[in-house]
Every structure is written in structure tokens, then in C-alpha cells.
Amino acid sequence: MSEFFDKDIESGKQEEDSTYHYSYVEEDSNVEHDPNVEYVEEVIEEVVEEEPKKEKRKPKKKRKPMSEFTKKLTRMAAYGLVFGLVGGAAFQGVSYGLNKVGIAGGNQKQLATTQTVSTSSGSKSDVSAVAESVLPSIVSITGTFQTNSYGFFGRESSQESEGSGSGIIVGKDSHYLYIATNNHVVEDATSLAVGFCDDSTVEAEIKGTDSDADLAVVTVDLSKIKSSTLEEIKIITMGDSDKLNVGEQAIAIGNALGYGQSVTAGYISALNREVQLTDKTMTLIQTDAAINPGNSGGALLDGEGKLMGINTVKYSSEEVEGMGYAIPINTAKPIIESLINEETIPESKQAYLGITGGDMTEDMANAYGMPTGIYVSEIQQNSPAQKAGMQAGDVIVEFDGSSVTTMENLQNKLEKKSAGTKVTIKVKRQSQMGEYKDVTLNVTLGSKQDAQ
Fold first, then answer.
1. What is the C-alpha to C-alpha distance for residues 360 and 190, in angstroms, rounded to an integer?
2. Same domain, 143 and 290
3. What tens digit of pLDDT does each residue of 251-298 get?
4. Residue 368 near residue 235 (C-beta atoms within 8 A)
5. Is 175 a catalytic residue?
6. Domain-ending residue, one of 325, 342, 359
7. Does the chain have fewer CB atoms within 10 Å around its N or its C terminus?
8. pTM
């Protein structure tokens, strides 16, 4: 696996009296946060190419205010890529299960549970035994990202950078190895590479993502993996996060700072902790096991080596230490299984709705007295949305039975639908009295290709 180093990107000065803050908020931000709600900082680590055999630089504390390019990367990192309530393990995915994905219900794949790791290995400590057993299940994920920017006289330039995170091997079939990670680790990546425990690196592709849950599945073609690597890697053992108790031992493994896999240990600090991110609230496991930049997508284990959570964010404050968060595996497992099993639709056959809109965040909704969701500002003529009766000013809150909160989330769902598919869309529509009421629309999706 190639050497690289990460540097955290921070946006502007942080208020000294602020407990929680977002890394991408500009210096002149006047946004007030509810002191009773936990907020998380979103950050991203950037990997810079270096000459062979050069020493890795350590992240610097002080950063210049973010450029537009940096803001783009920060958005892609979402909740846990670097310092601050950073996606717990920047980029690291989770893998679980046996040496193969269990098959149930025809072609539907399910993540399987394996035997518990034995921690009674002679003179080795429990943590050491767990690490030795689980490290072959953890991978590094390196993504390449490209952003266009505009300089003087409107000149366009393209910048390319790399970001690193973690992933977990969750299963395999006769063709692919399946790796779970955070959505913000792979979002908008133009290419991906996975690094295994033997330092070999292989190209990877995104199988599916769920931005609301901050989860993604990456696949690696088995034919591209060396036989010696296949013999070393493992599928992680799944645990039951509903059986966790506060005070239990917790072990976090991930690609910290992009230096390679590292192990930290602590305890389960709290369960069902509600953490406020930029555009959503997530219910997470809290731990004091160090969650460092580069650990996003990494594994949170119990003392027996079972996967209990996927590291995603951490608390950032000079006054507080040891507050990292992970997505409970019982929450993540069905979503990951769904991403593994969902059909991939060719772009030429993907569906389109025909709207222009924007995200109505919680802060904006409170300010304007509107519901959260996707605000529809314009309806295209003769589009599926217009034919179904959608109106400008509607706020989309549900698509085909699933809640949607952002345009990105809606687009991801449309990409998984074929043209001609019939779906129901629930919107909030303002009445003449100013009240918002539910309206359900039956929509026949059009062709994305025909709309271009």
C-alpha cells in the first residue's frame, strides 16, 4: 500500500466559547446552536502525493481559512473524516461475517455471523488477541477527488487530491469482496483503491450508498486480488449492538491519519446518543476509545472482537477529550445488506423526476416556519413531476416509502430506479391558511437520458 499522509482542513476561526462547531462554517457565521443538543464537526483529511521514501508530514494545528476547493472536500467528508467530531475513523469501512456472504431467499445476500474471537492466547492481552484476529478484516480506502475552480477572468482549473479512510470486509461471493464504509469516505470519488493487511492495493468500485445513514458498500473484483492476499484476509465477526452495556470494553481499529491500521481501546461511554450533524440527527454509540482522523468507516469492537459499530464522527473541543461515535451495527447491517443486493441501473436507463430544488435544513425550516425536506423551486415542463401534480413550493419529505431530506439523497434514490417505474412521493404543501398539509403523489418516473 502506497505511503501517504493526511492533513486536516479546517474552515476559519472557531469561537472560543463554542462547545460544538462545524468545520466548514465560515468565520463570520452567526449561526446559533442549541446548547442542549450535541453538535458535531465535519472534517475531511486530504492526502497529498509525495516523492518516494519521503517522510510523512504531521498535521499542523493552524490552517488558513478554507478555499472553495477545501469547502467542497469538507462537504464530501461529512461526519467523520478528520479532527473534530470527525467521522470517527476517517474513511474506514466495516466488514463482517464469514468467509462468504450467506445466501437466503433466492439471490438475496445476508451478512453472516461467525464465531467469537478467542482472547485467551497465552501471554497476550485481550486487546492484543482481538487486534491480531480482526486486523485482516480491516482495509484502508483511498479515494481520488477532482474539483473544478475558477480563477481570474473566469478561467477554470481542475484540482485533484486524495482522501483516505477505512473499511471493513463484510462478505464475499464468487465474484466480489464486499467492504462496508461511511458514505462520506467515498462520496464524489472519481476512483477508489483498497489496501489490505499485506500492503497490497487493488482498485475498487462503489456498489451502493445511503447518504442519510452515512453508509456505503465498496466492491473489489476477486480476480484482481492475489491468492496470497485472499488467504490472509478475513470477514469480520458480526455482533449484536442491542446487547451492549455502558462500561463494556471498546476497541477501535482504523487507518488513523492515513499512516496505516492502528488500534485504540476504551469503554462504551453511552448508548443511543443523539448527535446533531449538519443536515441530520443520528443515534450513535459513544466511546472514549480514540477515534482519529482517517478512522471513518473503521470498526468499533467489543472485548471479544465482535463488530458493534462503524466509527463515523468524534467530538472536537479543546476542553473535552475521548468522545467518539459509531453507527450501531444493528442499525447498519440491514442497510448494508440492502446496498449489496440492490440492482445497479445503467445511467442511460436511470429515472428522472424533473424538478429544481434545494435542501430545507432544520435551521432554515425553523427560521422560515417551513417543514424540513427538499424545497421544490421549479417544475420542468412535461416532466414526470408536473404530470403527477407536483407544484413549485412543495417540500418533498418522502420518496417511495423512504424519507428524504436532501437533493443528494433524492438523486441517489432516483439512480436506483429505472425509467417507467411507478413510485409514490409525499410532499408538504402550504394551504391558503398558511398551514402545511401532506399530499401524496403517484409518479411514473421518466428517462434520465430523454431529459438531457
1. 28
2. yes
3. 999 988 777 788 999 999 999 999 887 767 899 999 999 888 788 999
4. no
5. no
6. 342
7. C
8. 0.63
